Amino acid sequence: MRGDVSRLVQQFDSQAADMKRTIARLEDEAGAARRAADARDADIQRHAALLEEAKNTIDHLKEQEVRHVDLIDHLEKNIIAKNELQQSSKEEILSLQQRVSDLEAEKITIKEQLNEAEQERGRARDALDEQTSVAEQLRRDLDDARAQLQAERAALGALQAAAAAGQRELDA
Predict the structure, then answer these.
(1) C-alpha–C-alpha distance, residues 134 and 118, integer Å
(2) Where is coiled-coil annotated (predicted)?
(3) Beta-carbon-side half-sphere exposure of residue 96 (alpha carbons within 13 Å)
């Protein structure tokens, strides 16, 4: 029996040693599992931080997209306004070109009228010069006629004085 007990003790010791080795191995595996879990937890936290950063980046990009859409809308409105202004400017330019053309035609007409007026003025000046010449001749003729009339009046006065003197002599 002692041999049996001894064998049993040996078996228990052997089983206890196996159990200690198993416990040590399990503790090592548990430590490795804890380290792996800690590493995974750190990875998860890094991934969570990256995910949060990605979400923030996405939110920022969405805000930029909204601003870009607003900017594009604003630019499209500016382009439309610019196109309308260009069209209006083209129409105004055409209107001004037509006005310039009309003014050029009016200028030509006025020049023609001015030329006609200059010709008429030249004819009138020639006629005036001729009339002035005739008037000067008439003035000279009138001056001559006045001088002759005065001479005739003086002669008539002398004749009347002589006749009066002759009458007085006859009367006397």
Answers:
(1) 24
(2) 9-162
(3) 6
pTM above 0.85, yes or no: no
Alpha-carbon torsion angle 162, 163, 165, 167, nearest 10: 170
Sign of the CA dihedral with 140 first, then 142, 143, and 145 last: positive
d(CA 14, CA 22): 12
Residue 152, classed as helix, strand or coil, is helix
Unique residue bearing structure tokens 């601003």: 67
Structure tokens at 49: 């931080």
pLDDT in tens, 75-104: 999 999 999 999 999 999 999 999 999 999
CA of 119: how far to CAs of 55, 124, 132, in Å?
93, 8, 19
Alpha-carbon distance of 11 to 6, in angstroms, equals 8
